[in-house]
Design goal:
Helix content: 10-25%
Strand content: 25-35%
Number of helices: 7
Mean pLDDT: 76
Number of strands: 34
Distance between the termini: 144 Å
Low-confidence stretches: 1-21, 119-160, 243-262, 367-379, 545-568, 666-677
Length: 677
């Protein structure tokens, strides 16, 4: 029994022999306890590690969830802030437009009040209706509800009070289109200037303008000159200078015989060779913009704004223009449907650059060497000589493009010396050509006392306050009085023409002064007849100023009626000529250039005048289409036009009257120097 029990006890504990005894069992139990403790310890570590991992994972997910909530809240806050900012930006733009509109209404009200006052004084009228109109349009104490309809009311009253010269009224005007861009494979021609009594015999007329294959500022934009041997005849034929080996002339009908190449008829308008522009040598890549494929084009410097001048004493003709440096390309613009419909616009040159001049002389009857050393005249024409830089874009350590548009004025002193004054302006280029911050658009003059050998810039005529898009540019200078008193009349963004005064032969100029002459931000031109000393002014008799340079591409100023009338940008018609015997105090309109049929989007603008033998008045101007509207007439009328007329010998004071009188504004359009003038 005892053996059996021992055997059975030994079988209960594996590995323990039958003769193991009590001491062996104790050691086994100790080992088992040690193994169990190790196992418990490992399990505890594993549990702790698992708990750490679980806690870390929970913390990670909770953190992500928390930050996700915060990010969503931040995104919602940013969206709401963007909406708020967008709303206030719209409000700000609307406020700027309202201020602009109110300012323009104030201009009209002051002009209208001035006119009413003058008419009352002239007619000795003191009726209650006149007094009420004065009270309404004096410019003070306007309530907001009164201002809402003031634009229409002031403009309507202005039109009623200001007589208009309707088509068919006034003197007879002969018009002809001297350059049709389509006939020469072009789409653009603009900014013409004219000189009369040109050529070797002093009986011709010459017109210079800028052309481009597609759009303003496009590649291959250059300057062309057209010359007619006899300016008296109204009959015209058109001849094109062909760049052939013999330098011949070819008629527009295709005749190019040797007998026609050298001899020019009196009726022939000769289109001279385009001015050469230095080629950069780079080519643009073929791109697609708005679904339109633009083929590669060769970059070459763009030529702008030609201005012609003739020195009768030396029989030398001058051709001033601006040349854009090769780095100054405006970025392309994509097509858009809102707020205005606009087609895609490829890269193009900025407006302006370096001011340059070319000359040709008819004094000795021989040709003038061109830049290639050729001494070859084309019939009665001469080649333009090599270009000379007058005023660089980077002069005065300010990289701002310089531009010209109006003719040079010559002031003859008592000692027979001459002072030449060429109006120009500085036009900002914020995205190209590195125009410095804070530099504003400013007008001035290039002044020469040695007949164009050397030039110096004088005057910085600009607004001291307001948006960068405000400007006074494209000045035209006329002389008045015996003391060589100079007035520069300029277009502006403010709804009226501005003027600047100089009493020291153009060395210093006053701050811009608002005049009573309305202006739709379009070029004006002045000229004084040398024989009668009478002042003539060509201008668009419009009151709406719409310039897209202020406020971005979607800035369309004015009321909804204005937008409809301007068709998305500019309204320039009613091109008229007025004259004055009192230096512009009273201007009487005697001729209307446009024919009265001007659909929205058609602009009749940019006049330049010249007297032929001090008797017949020539006016060159442009007809062009607003790029914003994509409107094109059928048949097309765009191109360079020439109007001629014989001004009346006396002034008819029953004709519509305008004025260059200074009006006082309280909106800070000029600097403090205004009060001293």
């Amino acid at each position: 029994m005892l053996r059996g029990n021992t055997h059975s006890r030994g079988t209960l504990f594996p590995g323990v022999g039958a003769t193991g005894g009590g001491g062996g069992g104790k050691s086994i139990r100790i080992k088992q306890q040690q193994r169990y403790k190790k196992w418990i310890k490992k399990r505890r570590v594993r549990v702790i590690l698992l708990l750490v991992v679980l806690l870390s994972a929970c913390s990670f997910f909770l953190n992500n969830a928390f930050h996700g909530i915060l990010n969503r809240q931040n995104d919602e806050n940013e969206k709401s802030m963007r909406k708020v900012n967008s709303h206030y930006a719209k409000v700000d733009r609307h406020s700027r437009r309202e201020r602009k509109q109110m300012q323009r209404e104030d201009h009209l009200s002051k002009i209208f009040g001035l006119i009413i006052e003058e008419d009352d004084l002239e007619n000795n009228k003191d009726s209650s209706s006149s007094s009420s109109l004065k009270a309404d349009f004096r410019g003070g104490g306007f309530e907001q509800q009164q201002r809402k309809s003031l634009s229409q009311l002031a403009f309507g009253q202005y039109q009623m009070q200001q007589k208009r010269l309707f088509p068919g009224e006034g003197i007879k005007v002969f018009r002809e289109r001297i350059f049709d861009p389509l006939l020469h494979g072009l789409e653009y021609a603009h900014m013409g200037t004219i000189i009369a009594n040109s050529g070797e015999n002093g009986k011709g007329i010459s017109v210079a303008f800028q052309t481009a294959p597609d759009i303003e500022g496009g590649f291959d934009q250059t300057v062309r000159v057209m010359t007619k041997k006899n300016g008296k005849t109204t009959k015209s034929t058109f001849v094109v200078y062909n760049e052939t080996e013999d330098g011949g002339l070819g008629s527009s009908s295709g005749s190019n015989s040797s007998s026609n190449r050298r001899k020019l008829a009196d009726t022939a308008w000769v289109l001279e060779k385009p001015l050469p522009a230095p080629a950069v040598g780079e080519k643009s890549a073929a791109t697609k913009i708005g679904g339109e494929t633009l083929q590669p084009r060769t970059y070459s410097n763009g030529l702008w704004a030609p201005v012609l001048h003739r020195d009768e004493k030396t029989k030398t003709e001058y051709l001033f223009y601006a040349e854009t440096p090769p780095r100054c390309l405006r970025p392309r613009i994509l097509a858009q449907e809102f707020p205005i419909v606009r087609k895609a616009i490829p890269k193009r040159w900025i407006i302006g650059g370096d001011i340059k001049v070319r000359t040709r002389s008819f004094a000795d009857g021989s040709g003038t060497e061109d830049e290639n050393g050729n001494d070859d005249g084309v019939g009665d024409l001469k080649e333009w000589n090599k270009a000379k830089t007058v005023y660089r874009m980077t002069t005065d350590n300010v990289a701002i493009p310089k531009v010209i548009a109006n003719k040079l004025t010559v002031v003859t002193l008592d000692n027979a010396e001459e002072v030449w004054l060429l109006p120009f302006w500085r036009q900002r280029s914020p995205h190209t050509c590195s125009t410095a911050r804070g530099v504003r658009n400013a007008a001035g003059v290039l002044r020469s006392t040695d007949k164009g050998e050397t030039w110096k810039a004088n005057g910085v005529i600009q607004f001291q306050t307001g948006a960068k898009g405000r400007w006074v540019i494209e000045g035209s200078i006329f002389e008045s009085g015996e003391n060589h008193h100079l007035t520069m009349l300029m277009r502006s963004t403010e709804g009226v023409a501005f003027k600047s005064i100089s009493s020291d032969l153009g060395v210093t100029w006053s701050a811009p002064l608002p005049s009573a002459l309305v202006n739709p931000d379009s070029k004006l031109n002045t000229i004084v007849n040398r024989r009668t000393k009478r002042l003539y002014v060509a201008f668009n008799d419009e009151t709406i100023a719409m310039t897209a340079s202020e406020g971005g591409a979607d800035a369309i100023k004015g009321t909804s009626e204005d937008k409809e009338q301007t068709a998305g940008g500019k309204k320039r018609d009613e091109l008229v000529i007025a004259h004055s015997d009192d230096d512009g105090e009273n201007l009487y309109i005697f001729a209307r250039i446009d024919e009265g049929v001007t659909p929205p989007g058609v602009m009749i603008h940019y006049p330049t005048m010249a007297f032929y033998d001090d008797q017949e008045l020539f006016v060159t101007y442009s007809i062009s289409y607003n790029n914003a509207t994509n409107f094109v007439e059928k048949p097309r009328r765009d191109g360079i036009w020439l109007a001629r007329m014989t001004p009346p010998k006396t002034i008819d004071e029953t004709k519509p009257r305008r004025s260059l009188k200074t009006i006082l504004l309280d909106n800070g359009v000029g600097s403090s120097s205004n009060s001293a003038l």
